Structures are given as structure tokens and as C-alpha cells.
Sequence to fold (169 residues):
Amino acid sequence: MAKKVESIYKSWDEVNEAMKELGELNVAKTRIEGEQTLKINEVKAEANAKSSIIQARIKDIEKNIERFTDANKSEFLSKRTKKLTYGTISFRLVRKVCCNCIEEAIKGLKVLNLDFCIRTKQELDKDRLLECDENMLLKAGISIKTEDKVRIEPNFEKLAALSAENKSL
Fold:
């Protein structure tokens, strides 16, 4: 059996002071994370600005290569790939599914008994499972665990007011 570890706090006053520190630490952490997000967004914006010119040039070159290749498609009748010094160009038959309205397509597939063509994601509905009979759930290999968890909620409003008071002094 695991040995019970004693708390370092010996009174509710000590716990109250610890709650104050916990709240202040959470505020500081949130502030740091906010600064991090702002810096990340700045770096992303800068990188996007720099790479947008390059990305536009990439698309332009790819479109012009496609136009030239389409204009010279007759060269690909016997051999579907053309090796060049700096890469290869090839034609490949590609099949893709197109539909105007997914909901209507799904309804149509169901009417035609083509349900196997419809992908559905299955996952446990934990809220509904909590309403079920536990003995029945055990038969499916599911158990419900009940535990008494401590909930720690620093009073951020009070701490923010205290912090504002200390800054004005």
C-alpha cells in the first residue's frame, strides 16, 4: 500500500496564503503565455509576408509548366513521363469524387442501399454512458469510476484588485 504523504501546510491561513500565491502564479503564467502568443503571431506574419512572394512565384511557374505541358501533350502518348535534368513531368490518370451537396449525396446513397460508401466516425458518448446501468456497462467492458476530487479555485478578481492596489502604492 502506498504511504500517505503529509501536506506542507499546517493551517487554513497557510492554505489561504498558498491560494494567493497560486492565483498570482496563474496570472503571471497567463501573462507570459499571452506575450508568447503575440510574439508567435508577429513571427508568423513576418514569415508569411516573406514567403508570399515566393509562393506566388511557385504558383506562377507551376501554372506555366502545366500550360506548356498541356500544349505539348502529344509527346506523352507513348510514354507518360518525361525526365528532365531538374525533375520529371508526367501525366497520371486521377479519379476524384465530385458532388454539389454532401447531405443530398448521403441521402441518395442511403436510398440506393450504398451505406457502405458512407464513412461514419464512432466514439463513446460519455455523458450518455454515465446515465446507463453500471452492470450493463460492465458486460461491454466499461466501468464508471467515482472519485472525490479537490477543486482549487483562486479568486482572480480579488487578486487582480490586490495587484492593482499594490501597483498604485
Summary: The chain is about 55% helix and 5% strand. The chain has a mean pLDDT of 90. The helical segments are 12-71, 102-111, 126-129, 134-139, 156-168.
